[in-house]
Design goal:
Helix content: 40-55%
Number of domains: 2
CATH class of the largest domain: Alpha Beta
CATH architecture of the largest domain: 3-Layer(aba) Sandwich
CATH topology of the largest domain: Rossmann fold
Low-confidence stretches: none
Mean pLDDT: 92
Shape: elongated
Length: 365
């Protein structure tokens, strides 16, 4: 057998092992080495493209996956990965065309039905999106996650909060360019507004829920002796730790962390742009009330509902809450409402997203 083919096969199999173990940089090097011995091998091109997607190198992924589909137009996986890469690049129509080609070759690709549903949602074709999500469920996709997608479109049977898998995947993939996109593109300024509404005092301890990369922590650190951050995304936790603002950063969901915290642990709790991933806020308010010290403050934002319901799961897949709902929860939990203010939280498609900024005080003595 040809020596070049044997060497290519050796590198290819090593690449597969690295890929399956989540070692994407090593996998990338092995697949490129394999191609140096046997260029234009469709399976290697496809795997290299899939690896580049995992590395967030979507333009390069699309290039090599287009080559893979030219070499072997019958490879459903290559078309599926190309659809994903193009979707990440914002080329929705091209991505939909590739997803349809993949599914015509192999209708059992649950993840491709899911990608197709997201593309159709973004292309303002909601009913077709719902049908794609249902087909994904039929083919073994994560049912609670896809039912959440469907609920965001139809407004029916919304869960009490966003599935953890969705939040983790979203923010793990978003971590590298998070701050630039949030601040420069979406014009996000919630941390500065929240911090500006707090009393001008020194805090012994503060908890930053959904800390992300540390935008809120940056505002708090100069006035806080001990600052703890909590986030569900491993990549966000890593970025926050690298920033060096927090005394401790914990990977956990909001309710889970609060349940484990000691009573009266913090003088300040903040949650900037976090509750848009939690629908029912009563358990969170109860838990914050338990861990907040006497005369402690709870500062947070919510997106405001448009239709007037207390809680709405929007087509954006974010929850919105009414002002009345926030006020009623504050009363129920014996918080003193120090201030409420309405400001845009960010922009979406260049349109301001209406938000409510809240500063609550724990009056216990």
């Amino acid at each position: 057998m040809d020596e070049s083919f044997e060497r290519a096969k050796e590198f290819f199999l090593a690449g597969v092992r690295h890929y399956e173990a989540g070692r994407y940089e090593q996998a990338h090097a092995q697949f490129e080495a394999s191609l140096s011995f046997v260029p234009q091998r469709a399976s290697t091109l496809m795997n290299l493209g899939a690896t580049r997607i995992q590395l967030g190198r979507f333009e390069e992924a699309a290039e090599v996956l287009e080559e893979a589909t030219e070499v072997d137009p019958s490879d459903a996986q290559a078309w599926a990965h190309l659809a994903t890469a193009l979707a990440e690049l914002g080329r929705h129509e091209d991505a939909l065309r590739c997803a349809d080609k993949a599914l015509a070759l192999d209708a059992a690709l649950a993840s491709t039905w899911s990608v197709r549903g997201m593309l159709l949602r973004d292309l303002q074709r909601p009913q077709e999106a719902v049908e794609s999500f249902r087909k994904a469920i039929e083919r073994g996709a994560d049912a609670p996650l896809h039912e959440y997608y469907i609920a965001a479109i139809t407004g029916e049977a919304a869960p009490s909060q966003t599935p953890a898998r969705y939040v983790q995947t979203l923010f793990d993939s978003y971590a590298d360019g998070f701050e630039d996109h949030l601040v420069e593109v979406l014009r996000y300024g919630a941390p500065g507004i929240l911090a500006g509404g707090l009393p001008q005092r020194e805090w012994r301890s503060a908890l930053d829920l959904g800390c992300g990369t540390g935008l809120m922590g940056e505002q708090l650190k100069p006035r806080v002796a001990r600052l703890v951050g909590v986030d569900l995304s491993a990549n966000m936790v890593g970025r926050a730790r690298e920033r060096g603002l927090y005394d401790d950063v914990v990977q956990a969901d909001v309710t889970g962390y609060l349940a484990s915290a000691k009573e009266a642990s913090f003088e300040l709790v903040t949650a900037a742009d976090v509750f848009n991933y939690i629908g029912e806020l009563a358990p969170v308010f109860d838990a914050v009330r338990r861990v907040l010290a006497p005369d402690g403050w709870f500062a947070f934002t919510v997106e405001l509902t448009v239709a007037g319901a207390d809680v709405e799961l929007q087509p954006s897949m974010r929850y919105a809450h009414s002002r009345g709902y926030v006020e009623s929860l504050a009363t129920r939990c014996d918080f003193e409402v120090a201030a409420l203010a309405e400001h845009p939280i960010r922009e979406d498609q260049r349109q301001p997203i209406p938000g409510l900024f809240a500063w609550l005080r724990n009056p216990r003595t």
